[in-house]
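Render this sequence as a predicted structure.
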Amino acid sequence: AEGQELGNGEEMHILERQLRDMINSEFEVNLKCREVENQKSQLEKEVAKRVSYLRELGLTVTTCIEERSQNQTAMKSLSEQNNILEGHSLSYEQRIANLTALLNQLDKDVADLFAINTQLNAVQSPKNPPSVT
């Protein structure tokens, strides 16, 4: 019976050691689980920051695209207005050319009339006073 008690005592020590090892192992597992949970929490925070940054970047890109579209629309409108103004400019240049030609003709006509007037005055000079009837 004493041998059996000794055997039981050893078995108890083995069981106690196994129990301690299991408790230590469970403690280590729990510690590792907390570390993993902390890492998971940190990663979730980092992902949330990056998602927020990407959303802001997306909004910025969207704003830039909208501004570019507005600028393109404005440029198209300005181009159309420029084409209209160029058309008016060409029309005005043609009018100016026509008016310049008319002024040159008028200057020539005035010069011709002045020459005729000079000739008439020479004919009606005091040497040959006009006859009064």
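Summary. The longest helix spans residues 2-123. The chain has a mean pLDDT of 89.
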